[in-house]
Amino acid sequence: MRRLMNILHSFRTRVTIAFILSLLFVMGLSSLFLCKFSFDEQLSQIRQRLMMIAQTASLMVDADLLMQVPLNREGINTSAYKTINNRLSEIKRVNPSLKYIYTLGRTDQPGTLQFIVDPNPVMKEGGSKGPSAFPGDKYYASRFPEMLAGFKGPSADKKISIDEWGVTLSGYTPIRDKSGKAVAILGVDMAAEDVYATQQQLRWRLLLVLIMGFFVSVGLGILVSNRVTDRIEKIVDGTRHITADDLDFKVEIKGHDEITELAGSFNTMASSLSESKKKLQGYFFRVVQSLVRILEAKDPYTSGHSERVAEYSEKIASVIGFSPGKIEVLKKAAELHDIGKLAIHQNILNKKEKLTPEEWQIIREHPVVGEEVLKPILIDRELIEMVRSHHERYDGKGYPDHIKGDNISIFAQIISVADAYDAMTSPRAYRSTLSKEAAIVELKANCGTQFNTQIVEAFLKTMEEEKG
User: Fold this and answer.
1) 29-84 pLDDT, tens per residue?
2) What stretch(es) of the chain map to CATH 3.30.450.20?
3) CATH architecture of 298-467
4) Where are the domain boundaries for CATH 1.10.3210.10 in the chain?
5) What does the angle CA 186 – CA 192 – CA 197 come to, to the nearest 5 degrees?
6) Which homologous superfamily does the CATH classification assign to the domain defined by 62-191?
7) Rounded CA gap, 5 and 445, in Å?
């Protein structure tokens, strides 16, 4: 008994026990952080997706036509209702993950909205009680502040909501009239069963990790308590990086024991999160890229413009000597540089006559609009900066920020040259096409004022190489 007491009171035993308890605490904390991060990341991705779908869908809804729908049950028989209903149904068809899509307007009662157009107006038919969504039917929205915030800008539920329509996660965006006033909101709902299932799986994995971690920590604490201290510090550091959204961070631990396996599992989990995040960003990039192509497809004068600008930009950057990674980001920015023109009416974009000052102001806002479209879905700040600044001039007379000289992103300057050349050598509604030679003369004439001379020279070198 005395010998057992001596062992329990020995410094080595105390260190081992302290190490075991510390390791269990760290593993539990790491697992909780990762679980919470996974939950938050999943909800964040779904919320961003819902807001993106809602924003895109709102562009297809004519606010003036929507306001023509009578707010009574007979309203579903009007042409205005049917037109809006068909558009919403088509949006729902191409987005199979959506459960509901609908439009809501304000009422005189605070916190209460009313349905305008819903492709599924009746949930229960006959005389039975149940929710309905005919024009004019009221909906108590005070319980969902994000829904009311939809009149101010894109928003989404911060947590899964439960109401008479079921368990959903919803996104909202304003529907604005020609004056920019939000006259209604467009809402999209996604069923939450899949979210619940994923969270349940994560909870089971957390429990398994904790159980396994207990036995691993006891064994390692007895055998290598002194040697493990530094290695645990690395795992703790990895947890900090993961919680700071550094998903590409790797924990480097050599060996063939359980702690090495734990580090490997940690890296696998971080890689999985990173890959999921990249896939989501890639998905949204392709969605935005499709929107650009749709925009160009509507205008025969700009068909293929963004792809050509991306090709010219790539050649210029290669001549200057940028890395392949930087060039890839530049190409993506060039492909999306005109995404802001989605908010400009086609009558302005294709106008043959001289634009009015007000129309010019609308045109000049498209880089800022493009930035606002990309902000919620792309984390690469450098790419978003290129989109915002591609109409800045070297002499500071560009827009929207009037940046001057080398304060402008070098990649935005490259896109500016490529964009100008393709615009000059492509047909436009308001002028005829310039020859390549005439366009080159224009580029040279504007060196030092509109364009960076070094970039123009690099572009001319690519042209010479093509001739050769």
Assistant:
1) 666 676 677 777 777 888 898 999 999 989 889 999 999 999 998 999 999 999 99
2) 62-191
3) Orthogonal Bundle (1.10)
4) 298-467
5) 160
6) PAS domain (3.30.450.20)
7) 91
